[in-house]
Automatic annotation (TrEMBL):
<dbReference type="GO" id="GO:0033389">
    <property type="term" value="P:putrescine biosynthetic process from arginine, via agmatine"/>
</dbReference>
<dbReference type="InterPro" id="IPR006035">
    <property type="entry name" value="Ureohydrolase"/>
</dbReference>
<feature type="binding site">
    <location>
        <position position="202"/>
    </location>
    <ligand>
        <name>Mn(2+)</name>
    </ligand>
</feature>
<dbReference type="InterPro" id="IPR023696">
    <property type="entry name" value="Ureohydrolase_dom_sf"/>
</dbReference>
<feature type="binding site">
    <location>
        <position position="289"/>
    </location>
    <ligand>
        <name>Mn(2+)</name>
    </ligand>
</feature>
<comment type="similarity">
    <text>Belongs to the arginase family.</text>
</comment>
<keyword id="KW-0464">Manganese</keyword>
<keyword id="KW-0378">Hydrolase</keyword>
<dbReference type="Pfam" id="PF00491">
    <property type="entry name" value="Arginase"/>
</dbReference>
<dbReference type="GO" id="GO:0008783">
    <property type="term" value="F:agmatinase activity"/>
</dbReference>
<feature type="binding site">
    <location>
        <position position="171"/>
    </location>
    <ligand>
        <name>Mn(2+)</name>
    </ligand>
</feature>
<feature type="binding site">
    <location>
        <position position="200"/>
    </location>
    <ligand>
        <name>Mn(2+)</name>
    </ligand>
</feature>
<dbReference type="GO" id="GO:0046872">
    <property type="term" value="F:metal ion binding"/>
</dbReference>
<feature type="binding site">
    <location>
        <position position="198"/>
    </location>
    <ligand>
        <name>Mn(2+)</name>
    </ligand>
</feature>
<protein>
    <submittedName>
        <fullName>Agmatinase</fullName>
    </submittedName>
</protein>
<feature type="binding site">
    <location>
        <position position="291"/>
    </location>
    <ligand>
        <name>Mn(2+)</name>
    </ligand>
</feature>
<keyword id="KW-0479">Metal-binding</keyword>
Length: 369
């Protein structure tokens, strides 16, 4: 292992924690955490040691897809609870989609009150460094978005042949995930596109004075794309402005939910494939907000919306894209298992997790190819 890789692995051991432990608790959800530990490691004791030992096998792992959990919902703004997504989705994947295999890097260590280091004063950063690293002069970041970007930058520098599958968390987390991905691919001479499934555009410049949040992350990664039109959005339906406003203002390409339902997912996918080929795109990153699906399939989320896509719509589009382009990065966001916004009498978290796991499994398998 090179000195650079050793330094990166030391950073991982400090800035991350075992899978499912990203939400800091003493007793809450202990049974669920223990269940995941048993599935992953066959035991509940000494998991921290086993996890750190597993990091040393990253280079030799046969899997190109590498899971990173970011248990933060500080960048959300409606119903909270997506911080439990990484724990619950992992367990659902293991139970319901065992064929989807990936190397598990663990979770970002999250202080739940923080978003990004740029919003903090020096005294707060010092206190948080003391809490996270027992070192008030630590060189490591303390906020989830800042830690995620730093870890992903190091990951792509050391393991360019692998890709991150991020599990959130609210959608602000896709800002550091995609920013690190796009910069790494640009430096490698690859032309990329972001495939974004969502009920909302996430194209605000800021929300209530905060520029990095669940409603604005897309705006702030446009500069890292080959062209703004390489952000392609599917499933939009909850917007205070019409489609033309977003496309004309930002230069992105949108396919609203009603268009996909009316025209058919395969016809829309063919149009997108033609665009991507015309733009000479090499690789794709898929960012999937679970609320892209209709609320009958995905009500355990912060902002469930009616009139959305079915899981079949989403998978038809993803299958068509994956047949033509490598998917080399992806994320699944906004699953909030403890919320129950459903009014139709079903167990919303089970349905949402099931459908989220199906789509996540497809993305992980596509990345492994």
């Amino acid at each position: 292992m090179s000195n650079t890789q050793k330094a990166f692995h030391e950073k991982l051991s400090q800035c991350l924690c075992p899978p499912g432990d990203g939400v800091f608790t003493v007793n809450t959800a202990k049974e669920r955490k223990d269940a995941l530990r048993t599935k992953l490691y066959g035991q509940t004791d000494n998991v921290d040691v086993l996890w750190k030992e597993s990091l040393e096998t990253l280079a030799d792992s046969e899997h190109k897809a590498v899971i990173l959990g970011i248990s933060s919902d500080c960048g959300g703004g409606i119903l909270r609870g997506a911080n439990w997504g990484p724990l619950f989705l992992r367990s659902t994947l293991i139970d319901q989609q065992p064929q989807a295999r990936a190397f598990d890097l663990g979770d970002v260590r999250v202080i739940p009150h923080l978003l990004h280091d740029k919003y903090l004063n020096d005294a707060t950063i010092t206190n948080c460094q003391k809490a996270l690293y027992a070192d008030e002069n630590s060189e490591y970041h303390v906020s989830p978005l800042s830690i995620t970007e730093d870890v992903c930058d190091g990951f792509y520098a050391n393991y360019p042949e692998k890709g991150i599958f991020g599990i959130g968390g609210d959608h602000s987390i896709s800002y550091p995930l995609t920013k690190a991905y796009l910069r790494a691919k640009r430096d490698a001479g690859k032309r990329t596109a972001i495939i974004h499934f969502d009920a909302h555009t996430d194209l605000l410049v800021e929300r209530l004075g905060i520029d990095l949040c669940f409603g604005s992350w897309c705006t702030h990664i446009l500069e890292y794309l080959p062209a703004p039109r390489n952000l392609i959005q599917f499933g939009i339906r909850s917007s205070g402005k019409p489609k033309q406003h977003w496309e004309d203002t930002f230069g992105v390409k949108q396919h609203w939910a009603h268009e996909i339902i009316e025209r058919g997912a395969k016809a829309v996918a063919e149009e997108v494939i033609a665009q991507l080929k015309a733009d000479n795109v090499d690789e794709l990153y898929v960012s999937f907000d679970i609320d892209a699906l209709d609320e009958s399939f995905a009500s355990a989320t912060g902002t469930p919306e009616a009139g959305g896509l079915t899981p079949e719509h989403a998978l038809d589009i993803l299958v068509a894209l994956a047949d033509e382009f490598p998917i080399t990065g992806a994320d699944m966001m906004e699953i909030a298992p403890f919320t129950d916004s459903s009014l139709i009498g079903q167990t919303s978290s089970e349905t949402t997790l099931r459908e989220g796991a199906k789509i996540s499994a497809f993305l992980i398998n596509a990345m492994n190819k």
